Amino acid sequence: MPLVEMFQYDFMQRAFLAGIITAVICPILGMFVVVRRQSMIGDGLGHIAFAGVTGGYLAGIYPAAGAFVLTIAGAAGIELVRRRRTQMADTALAVFFYAGIALAIIFSTITRMPSAGLLGFLFGSILTVSWQDVVVIAGCGLTVIAFVFSNFTRLMLVSFDEDVAKVAGIRTAAVNMSLSIVTAITVVTGMMVVGILMVSALMIVPVAAAEQMGKGFKATMAWAVGLAIVAVISGLTAAFYLDIAPGGSIIMTTIIFYIIIAVTRQLCYTWRSARRTQTYP
After folding, report:
1. b (16+ CB within 10 A) / e for 23-61
2. What's the mean pLDDT when you consider all of the chain?
3. What is the pLDDT, as a whole number, of residue 279?
4. Rounded to an integer, what distance in angstroms lies between the CA atom of residue 53 and that of residue 67?
5. Any residues with CB less than 8 A from the CB of 211 and at least 6 apart, and which?
6. Quick check: 229 pLDDT over 90?
7. For the residues 252-265, what does the mean pLDDT come to?
């Protein structure tokens, strides 16, 4: 059978494991990012991660380790600036965003990093992940899931209304900083699967698609995770048989889901409106 054929290859087994883990944690963090209206933070942290990759290569360490260090530092810096001057949060994100790009360019030119390696981090290289990478991704995934579900109520309250959370006695500064750091971990984890340029899409698009279903917060999160998992499975299958880039295939699948749900929702709304008009002329 065609589907069984894929799993005869070790690289596809590793790709599916890494992809499904990432598909679970990205929308979970994406829910809080969307509620906080920080949908572009994934892009900003992604470019900081790119600087970390090239910086790690320059320092002679595992590039992903460099990305973890610099992205977490960048996330903490963004949160500190946001906390001091809330109205400047977007500006601060832009500054960190461009600083990440600039450092990545500088480091890559100094090290003469191979273009194949750069493209792998930019656009994803899920088909080349090793078992060591899978273990790292699984560890990051467990960390993110444990953090979210042990602090779920606090995260929800802080994300929806920080002032109410303060009145309720929640240490909002600590929660916000922790969420920023965990978001950075998620971005670097997703980078290893779909690439720096598309990791934000895996965090945001499934959530945006699930939100259109009009469910509650937990139901929306569950639907977002489900859509992301299906997108990873479909995208990897298409990449294997059509010989196309898996990262782009996965993200394009999430976008197709978003369009289908949006069109279906609009058609249902139009149909219900027409029914009401016929019933109550």
Report:
1. bbbbbbbbbbbbbbebbebbbbbbbbbbbbbbbbbbeee
2. 81
3. 60
4. 5
5. 34, 220
6. yes
7. 89
pLDDT digits (tens, 9 = 90+) for 140-158: 889 999 999 898 888 888 8
Do 27 and 203 form a contact (C-beta atoms < 8 A)?
yes
The burial of 182, by beta-carbon neighbours within 10 Å (0-12 exposed, 13-18 middle, 19 or more buried), is given as: buried
Q: Are 176 and 79 contacting, i.e. CB atoms less than 8 angstroms apart?
A: yes
What's the rounded Cα separation, in Å, for the pair 74 and 68?
10
Classify residue 9 by its DSSP letter: S
* Interatomic CA distance for residues 44 and 220, integer angstroms: 25
Distance CA 46, CA 160 (A): 25
User: 116 is written with which tokens?
Assistant: 């194949």
Angle ∠(246,217,231) on CA atoms, nearest 5: 15
Q: Are 126 and 67 in contact (CB under 8 A)?
A: no
Residues 6+ apart with CB under 8 A from 189: 21, 22, 25, 136, 137, 140, 141, 144
Secondary structure class of 105 (helix, strand, coil)? helix
Q: How far apart are CA 203 and CA 268, in angstroms?
A: 27
pTM for this structure?
A: 0.83
How many CB atoms within 10 Å of residue 264? 12
Helices (DSSP H) in the chain: which residue ranges?
2-6, 10-35, 41-59, 63-84, 89-111, 115-123, 131-150, 152-160, 162-167, 172-194, 199-211, 217-242, 246-279
Please write down the HEC assignment for all residues of 190-253: HHHHHCCCCHHHHHHHHHHHHHCCCCCHHHHHHHHHHHHHHHHHHHHHHHHHHCCCHHHHHHHH
